[in-house]
# Entry
Amino acid sequence: MASRLDRLVTLLETGSTPLIRNTAAQQLADVQKSHPEELFNLLTRVVPYLRHKTWDTRTAASKALAGIVENAEKYDPNGEDDLAKDESKIEESGIKKEEAVEPTPLAEGQLSLDTLDIVSILKYGKELVRGGDRGHDWALASLDPAQRLAHQKKTLDGRLGLLGPYSEEELEYAVPSTNQNGSSTTLAREDSNGLSRQENNKGTSTPSEESGLSARQLNQLKRKRKREAMTAGSKSRLVDLSVRRTNT
# Structure
């Protein structure tokens, strides 16, 4: 078999007439038909002749390659899936087909891809950038997981931009929290710097108090407020982290 194959491949190059070369190409295709396992062996031998310097040799090699491919087993990537479907049909023969199950309706607050307004999200959605919304994150830190999840669900449409354009200064976050007496609720507002401020700014420094501080003292005050906000725990107090600078 090997010696016959070698002779046929050699005739693609050394055949004295086009008829001999074409006959060798046809016989190579017949080898593939008789011995399907020789596919890659045949391709390895024939393909290099496609780059031969002689036109007749390249033509004969292309004809041989066409015949080999034609006689090769057709590959169906979905063949196994079709076989499994046929087997399932045989097993289910005589069994009444079940009716299509209606999709489960969406719960309140859930979004559907069919109706989701991607254009509004890209146009009006709140950007997710590193370092942004720090004040809002600190405001939510004092809530328990259930309250935090409820707040995020409530404000989801606005943050995604599904409610249209909004102003940073007008965007309000209703942050429910309970103080030691168990009855108070805090409303935090986010300013243009991404920092939250409490409607009742009780306990924060006034501009007149900060105007006499140096740059070093202002930085210390800002760090102190950050620590107070991060360690607030279950307290509902929101700390204004913005440090006002006055021109001297």
